[in-house]
Predict the structure.
Amino acid sequence: MNINRFFIFICLSLMVVFFFFKPMKLAENKKIDIAGVEVEKFSIHELNTKGLTRIIRGSKALIYKDTYKIIDVDYTDASRDNIANIKAKDGIYKDKTITLNGDVFFTRNDGLVLESQSLSYNEKTSILKTDDKYIMYRDKNKVIGTSFKLNNKLNKVYSKNVDITYDIGDN
């Protein structure tokens, strides 16, 4: 066999390999976020010049770089005129917003109570909202709806598909 035929044979063989065999697709590595700290039965108290402003309690927390994942959340915000307390099965606290899921129970010191399966509360804007069905009541007054937004600063409520029971009282 002469040398030219040998190189042609090698080139054709490599071309056949190149055209008929596809490169293997390697699985992409998914970024797994690992908690820096894992805590059980904890209580976080936030103080400032005005005094105690926030308390976060839970049975377990996974603390990441900028996020807390909490089981059995008990969150109290005393930074505003109305002190608010929220309890739920689990929640995520990130960027001054707490997002709660599972048997959420919100109370305020003025008697307002809200129950839902999910709830989001932004500390900066003081807005409480859910897109789930909810029940809100104060004294004998009751509101049932499918989505809800409460602006604590403006003391305004926005809701959809509302059924209201309002007690006018005795005159």
